[in-house]
């Protein structure tokens, strides 16, 4: 019998960004703790609907628990699932603090269980393309890397992400993706300085930020705006042999919400208008075909890790570094100064 998966939460993230990939990876969506029973029945008629995490963990047929609840619930729910002897995937951001992330990682180790964090943007089309270019040396020595995630959402919505709570706000929400991508591409910076702000009328959590980091001579800048009708380049890498630039977001989220399956030949394929380009020092331009995005890789590797005892696709230790930099960025914005980082991303 294949691995049986239980979900804690079945909002948009659970329904569209996790469950279809769990099923495509050859695992069974066996039970869901949610108040959205009609949606579960429509998507996975064989799955049981239970009222809460306690009822989910009381079942003896669940091997892996996927936690896609509001951020403030991640820590207690991950801990409860591990204490109940279940492997766990938790959506990003993993925890409000690095200390909590490290405590959960230690608990998983003590229990001999697999714990992974859903940093799915490591398998975005643009990220995979940028990584390919950096590994090839095609751009030469890199002077600057800029990652941006702009949206036009000027109205504050009545949703948990926009309410004050631990791990709320856009630095945790979208920023966790950008920080993780930057760390995966070039490694831990030596220092950072941040401006974290709220621009929308009626906003009570941060909705935008600008984060500058230094790694030797290289500069990394990450930014998010929710008042950007004309978004900036999503990726921009400036090297001595040319500049790579790419606009538009990875297509997998929209495809999953539209019901496109990961097995569709066009799944994860960027439209031609969103292909990147390299601008050479002489001003000439050439198109750069993007790699095919593949979020399915995360759950394929998670299944393999459970079945073979191998490494999970994204470790909690890796996610803890992301959270540590987000904490440092908030501190930098609050103190109005640059913060030095050690090689593990810790700061004083």
Automatic annotation (TrEMBL):
Matching InterPro entries: Gfo/Idh/MocA-like_OxRdtase_C, Gfo/Idh/MocA-like_OxRdtase_N, Gfo/Idh/MocA_oxidoreduct, NAD(P)-bd_dom_sf
GO MF terms held by the record: nucleotide binding; oxidoreductase activity
Taxonomy, superkingdom: Bacteria
Domain Gfo/Idh/MocA-like oxidoreductase C-terminal residues, every copy: 131-341
Gfo/Idh/MocA-like oxidoreductase N-terminal domain: residues covered: 3-119
Record keywords: Oxidoreductase
Pfam families recorded: GFO_IDH_MocA (PF01408), GFO_IDH_MocA_C (PF02894)
Family to which this protein belongs: Belongs to the Gfo/Idh/MocA family.
Name of this chain's protein: Oxidoreductase
């Amino acid at each position: 019998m294949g691995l049986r998966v239980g979900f804690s939460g079945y909002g948009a993230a659970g329904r569209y960004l996790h469950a279809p990939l769990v099923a495509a990876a050859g695992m069974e969506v066996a039970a869901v703790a949610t108040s959205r029973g009609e949606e579960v029945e429509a998507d996975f008629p064989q799955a049981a609907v239970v009222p809460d995490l306690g009822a989910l963990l009381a079942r003896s047929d669940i091997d892996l628990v996927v936690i896609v609840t509001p951020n403030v619930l991640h820590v207690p729910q991950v801990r409860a699932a591990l204490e109940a002897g279940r492997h766990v995937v938790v959506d990003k951001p993993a925890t409000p603090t690095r200390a909590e992330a490290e405590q959960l990682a230690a608990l998983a180790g003590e229990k001999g269980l697999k714990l992974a964090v859903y940093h799915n943007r490591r398998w975005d089309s643009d990220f995979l393309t940028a990584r390919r270019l950096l590994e090839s040396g095609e751009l030469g020595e890199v002077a600057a890397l800029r990652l941006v995630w702009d949206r036009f959402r000027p109205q504050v919505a009545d949703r948990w992400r926009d309410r004050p709570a631990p791990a709320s706000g856009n630095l945790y929400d979208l920023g966790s993706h950008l920080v993780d991508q930057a760390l995966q591409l070039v490694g831990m910076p030596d220092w950072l300085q941040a401006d974290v702000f709220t621009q929308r009328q009626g906003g009570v959590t941060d909705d935008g930020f600008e984060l500058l980091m230094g790694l030797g001579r290289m500069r990394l800048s990450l930014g998010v705006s929710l008042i950007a009708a004309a978004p900036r380049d999503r990726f921009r890498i400036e090297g001595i042999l040319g500049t790579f630039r790419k606009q538009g977001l990875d297509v997998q989220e929209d495809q999953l919400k539209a019901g496109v399956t990961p097995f569709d030949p066009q799944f994860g394929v960027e439209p031609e208008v969103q292909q990147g380009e390299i601008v050479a020092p002489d001003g000439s331009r050439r198109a750069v075909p993007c790699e095919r995005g593949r979020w399915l890789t995360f759950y394929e590797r998670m299944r393999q890790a459970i079945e073979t005892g191998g490494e999970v696709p994204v470790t909690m230790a890796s996610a803890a570094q992301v959270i540590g930099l987000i904490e440092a960025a908030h501190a930098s914005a609050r103190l109005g100064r640059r913060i030095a980082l050690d090689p593990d991303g810790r700061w004083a």
